[in-house]
Amino acid sequence: MYFIASLLLIVPIALASAPVTSSPPVLVWGVETPKATSIFQPVTTSQFQKIIRNLQKNNMIIIYLASELAAKDINCDLCFPYLTKIQPMNYYSQVEEPLNAVERVAEKTGEITWHIPKITEMGSLEAEMELPCQKGEIHAFSFNDRNLLAHDAAMAVATYQFSDCPVVHVYTAYTEEDKALQRRKSQKTQHMSIKNKGNGQPSNSDTVAELQPHQISHSQADNMTVLRNEMIVLTFRNIIMAIKEQPSVLSPFNRTEVVLAQGGEALQVGLLNSHDIYGGIVLVLHTELSPLIVELMPSQGNWYLTRMIFMNNTHYPRELYFFGFEFSLCCTDITVYNSDGSRFSFFDFHLDILWQDKDNGLDLEYEVKPCWNCSILMTPTMAQTIFVVLIIAAILWMGLAILLSIGQNQLLQNANDPDLHIKTDT
């Protein structure tokens, strides 16, 4: 187990030193394909080659190539009115050189048949896509532009043409969008350029001199840890884990400060549905003890902190932590609890989620959104306690009033009335 755990920690560090290659998104439909092994690492060329090779045995492969694509293009539902209706749709947010993978498969089974259709002319497009159904054949349609609506219409025609044929359709691009690729390269350069001092800590002079001036992902300021990602700006003072020594009410807690792991990427962000941010996101903080996963779900224009997972234990908040899309969450402390009574706390917690494409959390000139304070003046427990106390006080008051009224005659006798008859024993 120790060897496996060590291997899991070493593999990301080895991957960090690999060169950044063009990794456009890929859509595959017509058959179920394996899911990506990680939402944080791109599918490698060899992995995608294996997928295509397995699909080629019983299917014809048709690949559609745009000039360049980014993951945000695929997340545009209005750009693909036809593809959004196809189920099942297999989505890979990043695949390293997918065309190279298909070409490697074609080297052993046969050449790729290339087509350059005029996607704006529907008549010639239908004629170009009238192909014989042959298993194992690979056809590539080169669109050579980023007219996404036209691509969607062309792929709709192709899917209809091969409705009676076992065909696997693949939509991708020659290269990743240049802006997205350069941004990933700059992030990789930042992580590789930090030189360590003798004690293993990066020196301030090295960091300032070698990092790009407006792109920093991990820094310290006024005893606060600042973690940056394209989509996230996270700040906190420290993290404390408290575990009970024994499962009893009076058992003391063992408190441990959780420290981020040195080297590599301290903060990573993933999409829960692997498609868009509106399906929920997870933040992964790499600590020395274990990865810390923070899950946030959107609902009715707000972000909700639903749970945290640490050391294979799931912790849930007792309070309702939420903040609007146009705000950032600011809390003096956030505590989540496990079923065995252990707890996990962030102190001086500040979280800003950048859900618009125009914003970039790595830009030091970005101004975080206004604070949504999570301080609660009336907690649910306090509200329930006050309600119960008021009910008990009302019952006691009524009972005391009844007791005090015993023996007091509130009816005065009229002078014209006869004397009251009082029955006696004599």
From TrEMBL:
GO terms for cellular component: proton-transporting V-type ATPase complex. InterPro entries: Ac45_acc_su. One of its GO terms (biological process) is regulation of cellular pH. Keywords: Membrane, Signal, Transmembrane, Transmembrane helix. Residues 1-16 form the signal peptide. Residues 179-207 are annotated as: Disordered. One of its GO terms (molecular function) is ATPase activator activity. Residues 189-207 have a biased composition (Polar residues). The keyword tRNA-binding does not apply. The keyword Lipid metabolism does not apply. The chain crosses the membrane at residues 386-406. This is Uncharacterized protein LOC117142576. It comes from Drosophila mauritiana (Fruit fly).
